[in-house]
Design a protein that fits this description.
alpha+beta; 8 helices; seven-stranded mixed beta sheet; 13% helix; Sulfite Oxidase, Chain A, domain 2; 13 strands
Length: 319
Protein backbone atom coordinates (compact mmCIF):
# COMPACT_ATOMS: atom_id res chain seq x y z
CA UNK A 1 0.00 0.00 0.00
CA UNK A 2 1.30 3.46 -0.91
CA UNK A 3 1.03 5.86 2.02
CA UNK A 4 1.26 9.59 1.34
CA UNK A 5 2.71 11.64 4.21
CA UNK A 6 1.17 15.09 4.05
CA UNK A 7 3.33 18.09 4.87
CA UNK A 8 2.27 21.18 6.75
CA UNK A 9 1.71 23.30 3.65
CA UNK A 10 -0.67 20.82 2.03
CA UNK A 11 -4.45 21.20 1.81
CA UNK A 12 -7.26 19.70 -0.28
CA UNK A 13 -7.46 21.00 -3.85
CA UNK A 14 -11.13 21.76 -3.27
CA UNK A 15 -10.08 24.55 -0.92
CA UNK A 16 -7.84 26.36 -3.39
CA UNK A 17 -8.73 30.06 -3.98
CA UNK A 18 -10.95 30.43 -7.06
CA UNK A 19 -9.33 31.92 -10.16
CA UNK A 20 -11.71 34.85 -10.23
CA UNK A 21 -10.71 36.13 -6.79
CA UNK A 22 -6.95 36.31 -7.41
CA UNK A 23 -7.27 39.32 -9.71
CA UNK A 24 -8.75 42.17 -7.62
CA UNK A 25 -8.64 43.14 -4.00
CA UNK A 26 -8.99 46.88 -4.34
CA UNK A 27 -12.49 46.63 -5.74
CA UNK A 28 -13.51 44.53 -2.77
CA UNK A 29 -11.96 46.73 -0.12
CA UNK A 30 -13.13 49.99 -1.58
CA UNK A 31 -16.52 48.39 -2.04
CA UNK A 32 -16.73 48.22 1.71
CA UNK A 33 -16.05 51.93 2.01
CA UNK A 34 -15.75 54.56 -0.69
CA UNK A 35 -17.62 52.86 -3.51
CA UNK A 36 -20.90 51.04 -3.70
CA UNK A 37 -21.56 47.52 -4.89
CA UNK A 38 -22.76 48.82 -8.23
CA UNK A 39 -19.24 50.00 -9.07
CA UNK A 40 -17.74 46.56 -8.53
CA UNK A 41 -16.46 44.48 -11.42
CA UNK A 42 -18.67 41.70 -12.67
CA UNK A 43 -17.69 38.26 -11.31
CA UNK A 44 -15.44 36.32 -13.65
CA UNK A 45 -14.23 39.43 -15.49
CA UNK A 46 -10.62 38.77 -16.48
CA UNK A 47 -8.21 41.30 -17.91
CA UNK A 48 -7.41 40.77 -21.58
CA UNK A 49 -3.84 39.63 -22.23
CA UNK A 50 -1.72 39.79 -25.34
CA UNK A 51 -0.70 36.57 -27.02
CA UNK A 52 2.21 34.97 -25.17
CA UNK A 53 4.58 32.66 -27.09
CA UNK A 54 4.82 30.41 -24.02
CA UNK A 55 1.06 29.87 -23.83
CA UNK A 56 1.34 26.34 -25.23
CA UNK A 57 3.27 25.28 -22.13
CA UNK A 58 0.29 25.84 -19.83
CA UNK A 59 -1.39 24.50 -17.84
CA UNK A 60 1.56 22.71 -16.28
CA UNK A 61 1.37 19.64 -14.00
CA UNK A 62 0.41 20.42 -10.43
CA UNK A 63 2.84 19.45 -7.69
CA UNK A 64 0.52 17.82 -5.19
CA UNK A 65 2.96 18.45 -2.35
CA UNK A 66 1.89 22.10 -2.30
CA UNK A 67 -1.73 22.60 -1.34
CA UNK A 68 -3.80 25.03 0.69
CA UNK A 69 -6.06 25.27 3.73
CA UNK A 70 -8.16 28.04 2.14
CA UNK A 71 -10.13 28.49 -1.04
CA UNK A 72 -8.23 29.86 -4.03
CA UNK A 73 -8.62 33.56 -4.65
CA UNK A 74 -10.71 34.02 -7.82
CA UNK A 75 -8.66 35.21 -10.78
CA UNK A 76 -10.92 38.11 -11.69
CA UNK A 77 -10.49 39.50 -8.16
CA UNK A 78 -6.73 39.02 -8.03
CA UNK A 79 -6.01 40.36 -11.52
CA UNK A 80 -7.47 43.76 -10.66
CA UNK A 81 -5.91 44.27 -7.22
CA UNK A 82 -2.16 44.47 -7.55
CA UNK A 83 0.82 46.25 -6.06
CA UNK A 84 3.10 47.26 -8.92
CA UNK A 85 4.51 50.68 -8.06
CA UNK A 86 6.19 50.98 -11.44
CA UNK A 87 2.70 51.61 -12.83
CA UNK A 88 1.15 53.52 -9.93
CA UNK A 89 0.52 53.50 -6.21
CA UNK A 90 -3.10 52.41 -6.38
CA UNK A 91 -4.16 48.79 -6.77
CA UNK A 92 -5.95 49.17 -10.11
CA UNK A 93 -2.84 49.19 -12.31
CA UNK A 94 -3.84 46.28 -14.57
CA UNK A 95 -4.57 48.46 -17.59
CA UNK A 96 -1.39 50.52 -17.22
CA UNK A 97 0.72 47.38 -16.84
CA UNK A 98 -0.27 46.23 -20.32
CA UNK A 99 2.22 48.79 -21.68
CA UNK A 100 5.04 46.53 -20.57
CA UNK A 101 6.39 44.62 -23.57
CA UNK A 102 7.31 41.15 -22.34
CA UNK A 103 8.86 39.94 -25.61
CA UNK A 104 11.70 40.03 -26.32
CA UNK A 105 12.72 39.65 -22.67
CA UNK A 106 16.14 38.72 -21.37
CA UNK A 107 17.40 38.12 -17.85
CA UNK A 108 21.00 38.88 -16.98
CA UNK A 109 22.66 36.46 -14.55
CA UNK A 110 25.89 37.90 -13.22
CA UNK A 111 28.16 38.46 -10.25
CA UNK A 112 29.86 35.57 -8.47
CA UNK A 113 28.89 32.89 -10.96
CA UNK A 114 30.81 30.45 -13.11
CA UNK A 115 29.94 32.41 -16.25
CA UNK A 116 27.91 35.58 -16.61
CA UNK A 117 25.15 35.31 -19.19
CA UNK A 118 21.95 36.75 -20.57
CA UNK A 119 19.13 34.34 -21.29
CA UNK A 120 15.81 34.95 -23.01
CA UNK A 121 12.73 34.03 -21.04
CA UNK A 122 11.65 31.46 -23.63
CA UNK A 123 15.09 29.85 -23.58
CA UNK A 124 14.94 29.75 -19.78
CA UNK A 125 11.58 28.00 -19.91
CA UNK A 126 13.16 25.25 -22.01
CA UNK A 127 15.77 24.32 -19.38
CA UNK A 128 13.66 24.30 -16.21
CA UNK A 129 10.96 21.96 -14.97
CA UNK A 130 7.65 23.81 -14.80
CA UNK A 131 4.99 22.90 -12.28
CA UNK A 132 1.99 24.42 -10.53
CA UNK A 133 1.96 25.08 -6.80
CA UNK A 134 -0.87 26.33 -4.62
CA UNK A 135 0.55 28.94 -2.25
CA UNK A 136 -0.56 31.49 0.27
CA UNK A 137 0.59 35.08 -0.12
CA UNK A 138 0.58 37.56 2.75
CA UNK A 139 1.07 41.28 2.07
CA UNK A 140 2.67 43.55 4.65
CA UNK A 141 -0.44 45.71 4.16
CA UNK A 142 -2.31 42.99 6.11
CA UNK A 143 -4.26 41.28 3.34
CA UNK A 144 -3.76 37.83 1.91
CA UNK A 145 -4.65 35.61 -1.03
CA UNK A 146 -4.12 32.06 -2.22
CA UNK A 147 -2.84 31.52 -5.73
CA UNK A 148 -2.20 28.67 -8.19
CA UNK A 149 1.24 29.79 -9.35
CA UNK A 150 3.08 28.12 -12.23
CA UNK A 151 6.84 28.21 -12.47
CA UNK A 152 9.93 26.39 -11.24
CA UNK A 153 11.85 25.86 -8.02
CA UNK A 154 14.25 28.72 -7.35
CA UNK A 155 17.01 26.25 -6.61
CA UNK A 156 16.91 25.34 -10.32
CA UNK A 157 17.94 28.92 -11.05
CA UNK A 158 20.78 28.68 -8.54
CA UNK A 159 21.98 25.45 -10.15
CA UNK A 160 21.80 27.05 -13.59
CA UNK A 161 23.91 30.02 -12.45
CA UNK A 162 26.58 27.86 -10.76
CA UNK A 163 27.48 30.42 -8.08
CA UNK A 164 30.97 30.61 -6.62
CA UNK A 165 31.53 29.47 -3.05
CA UNK A 166 31.79 33.10 -1.93
CA UNK A 167 28.27 33.95 -3.11
CA UNK A 168 26.01 34.31 -0.07
CA UNK A 169 23.17 36.45 -1.41
CA UNK A 170 21.10 36.95 -4.54
CA UNK A 171 20.20 40.47 -5.64
CA UNK A 172 17.11 40.61 -7.89
CA UNK A 173 16.26 43.64 -10.01
CA UNK A 174 13.17 44.52 -12.01
CA UNK A 175 12.98 46.33 -15.36
CA UNK A 176 13.66 50.05 -15.71
CA UNK A 177 11.73 51.96 -18.39
CA UNK A 178 10.18 55.28 -17.28
CA UNK A 179 8.77 55.82 -20.79
CA UNK A 180 6.14 53.13 -20.21
CA UNK A 181 6.17 52.93 -16.39
CA UNK A 182 5.00 56.28 -14.98
CA UNK A 183 5.82 55.31 -11.41
CA UNK A 184 9.49 55.19 -12.31
CA UNK A 185 9.37 58.92 -13.04
CA UNK A 186 8.80 59.57 -9.33
CA UNK A 187 12.24 60.64 -8.13
CA UNK A 188 11.49 60.03 -4.44
CA UNK A 189 11.60 56.26 -5.05
CA UNK A 190 14.97 54.47 -5.52
CA UNK A 191 14.31 52.85 -8.91
CA UNK A 192 14.74 50.24 -10.21
CA UNK A 193 12.96 47.92 -7.77
CA UNK A 194 15.49 45.68 -6.03
CA UNK A 195 15.20 42.99 -3.40
CA UNK A 196 17.00 39.80 -2.57
CA UNK A 197 17.53 36.74 -0.45
CA UNK A 198 20.26 34.46 0.79
CA UNK A 199 21.48 31.48 -1.23
CA UNK A 200 20.09 29.27 1.53
CA UNK A 201 16.64 30.85 1.19
CA UNK A 202 16.76 30.45 -2.59
CA UNK A 203 17.53 26.75 -2.21
CA UNK A 204 14.65 26.17 0.19
CA UNK A 205 12.03 23.82 -1.23
CA UNK A 206 9.35 26.54 -0.99
CA UNK A 207 11.18 29.28 -2.94
CA UNK A 208 9.59 29.62 -6.38
CA UNK A 209 10.21 31.49 -9.63
CA UNK A 210 6.80 32.32 -11.07
CA UNK A 211 6.06 32.31 -14.81
CA UNK A 212 2.30 31.75 -14.81
CA UNK A 213 -0.91 31.71 -12.79
CA UNK A 214 -4.32 30.13 -13.11
CA UNK A 215 -3.13 27.71 -15.75
CA UNK A 216 -1.80 30.32 -18.18
CA UNK A 217 1.23 32.61 -18.65
CA UNK A 218 1.64 35.31 -16.05
CA UNK A 219 -0.38 38.45 -16.65
CA UNK A 220 1.53 41.73 -16.83
CA UNK A 221 0.01 43.06 -13.63
CA UNK A 222 1.30 39.99 -11.77
CA UNK A 223 4.88 40.67 -12.86
CA UNK A 224 5.24 38.95 -16.25
CA UNK A 225 7.19 37.26 -17.53
CA UNK A 226 9.12 36.28 -14.37
CA UNK A 227 8.71 37.04 -10.68
CA UNK A 228 9.63 35.55 -7.30
CA UNK A 229 7.40 34.07 -4.61
CA UNK A 230 8.60 33.01 -1.16
CA UNK A 231 5.38 32.21 0.69
CA UNK A 232 6.79 32.63 4.21
CA UNK A 233 7.80 36.25 3.49
CA UNK A 234 5.77 39.41 3.03
CA UNK A 235 4.78 40.02 -0.56
CA UNK A 236 7.05 43.03 -1.16
CA UNK A 237 9.93 40.54 -1.40
CA UNK A 238 8.35 39.14 -4.59
CA UNK A 239 10.22 41.10 -7.26
CA UNK A 240 8.19 41.39 -10.48
CA UNK A 241 9.24 41.49 -14.13
CA UNK A 242 12.80 40.45 -13.35
CA UNK A 243 15.63 41.69 -15.59
CA UNK A 244 18.75 40.95 -13.55
CA UNK A 245 19.81 38.34 -11.00
CA UNK A 246 23.16 38.96 -9.32
CA UNK A 247 25.01 36.55 -7.03
CA UNK A 248 27.04 38.45 -4.46
CA UNK A 249 28.84 38.24 -1.13
CA UNK A 250 27.12 41.40 0.13
CA UNK A 251 23.58 41.60 1.44
CA UNK A 252 21.49 43.61 -1.03
CA UNK A 253 19.78 46.79 0.12
CA UNK A 254 16.19 46.48 -1.00
CA UNK A 255 13.96 49.10 -2.62
CA UNK A 256 11.83 49.53 0.51
CA UNK A 257 14.85 49.62 2.82
CA UNK A 258 16.17 52.55 0.80
CA UNK A 259 12.79 54.25 0.68
CA UNK A 260 11.82 53.75 4.34
CA UNK A 261 14.42 51.91 6.42
CA UNK A 262 12.53 52.60 9.66
CA UNK A 263 9.62 50.47 8.44
CA UNK A 264 11.10 47.80 6.15
CA UNK A 265 14.08 45.49 6.53
CA UNK A 266 15.79 42.83 4.48
CA UNK A 267 14.29 39.66 5.94
CA UNK A 268 10.52 40.38 5.82
CA UNK A 269 9.49 37.08 7.35
CA UNK A 270 5.81 37.02 8.32
CA UNK A 271 5.27 37.38 12.07
CA UNK A 272 1.91 38.41 13.56
CA UNK A 273 3.61 39.45 16.81
CA UNK A 274 5.80 42.13 15.18
CA UNK A 275 3.66 45.09 14.14
CA UNK A 276 4.43 47.40 11.29
CA UNK A 277 5.14 50.83 12.84
CA UNK A 278 1.77 52.06 11.55
CA UNK A 279 -0.49 48.99 11.84
CA UNK A 280 -0.88 45.57 13.38
CA UNK A 281 0.15 42.35 11.65
CA UNK A 282 -1.90 40.15 14.01
CA UNK A 283 -4.69 39.54 11.49
CA UNK A 284 -5.20 39.71 7.74
CA UNK A 285 -8.08 40.29 5.36
CA UNK A 286 -8.63 37.28 3.11
CA UNK A 287 -8.93 38.62 -0.41
CA UNK A 288 -12.33 37.99 -1.93
CA UNK A 289 -13.91 36.60 1.24
CA UNK A 290 -14.64 39.74 3.24
CA UNK A 291 -13.31 38.33 6.51
CA UNK A 292 -10.30 38.73 8.74
CA UNK A 293 -8.37 35.78 10.14
CA UNK A 294 -5.40 35.47 12.50
CA UNK A 295 -2.04 35.70 10.73
CA UNK A 296 0.21 32.68 11.21
CA UNK A 297 3.89 32.91 12.06
CA UNK A 298 5.98 32.40 8.89
CA UNK A 299 2.60 32.55 7.06
CA UNK A 300 2.00 28.96 8.14
CA UNK A 301 5.23 27.58 6.64
CA UNK A 302 7.41 27.68 9.74
CA UNK A 303 8.01 23.94 9.85
CA UNK A 304 10.01 24.25 6.65
CA UNK A 305 11.79 27.59 7.03
CA UNK A 306 12.26 28.51 10.71
CA UNK A 307 15.53 26.61 11.05
CA UNK A 308 17.18 28.97 8.56
CA UNK A 309 16.93 31.82 11.06
CA UNK A 310 18.17 30.22 14.28
CA UNK A 311 20.74 32.37 16.04
CA UNK A 312 19.58 35.53 14.27
CA UNK A 313 17.57 36.98 17.13
CA UNK A 314 19.49 40.26 16.92
CA UNK A 315 18.53 40.80 13.28
CA UNK A 316 15.54 42.82 12.15
CA UNK A 317 13.98 39.60 10.96
CA UNK A 318 10.42 40.33 10.18
CA UNK A 319 9.73 43.75 8.70
Amino acid sequence: MHVIARKGWEIPESLATPESVFLNRRALLTGAGAIGAGAMLAPGAAFAQKADPSAHLYPVPRNENFKLDRALTPEDVNARYNNFYEFGTTKNIAAAAQRLQIRPWTIKIDGLVEKEREIGIDDLLKVVQLEERLYRMRCVEAWSMTVPWSGFAMKQLVDLAKPASGAKFIRIETFMDPKIAPGQRQVWYPWPYVDGCTIEEARNDLAFMVTGAYGKPLGNQFGAPLRVHMPWKYGFKAVKSIRRITFTNERPVSFWEKAQASEYGFWANVNPAIAHPRWSQATEEVLGEGRRVPTLIWNGYGEFVADMYKGMEGEKLFI
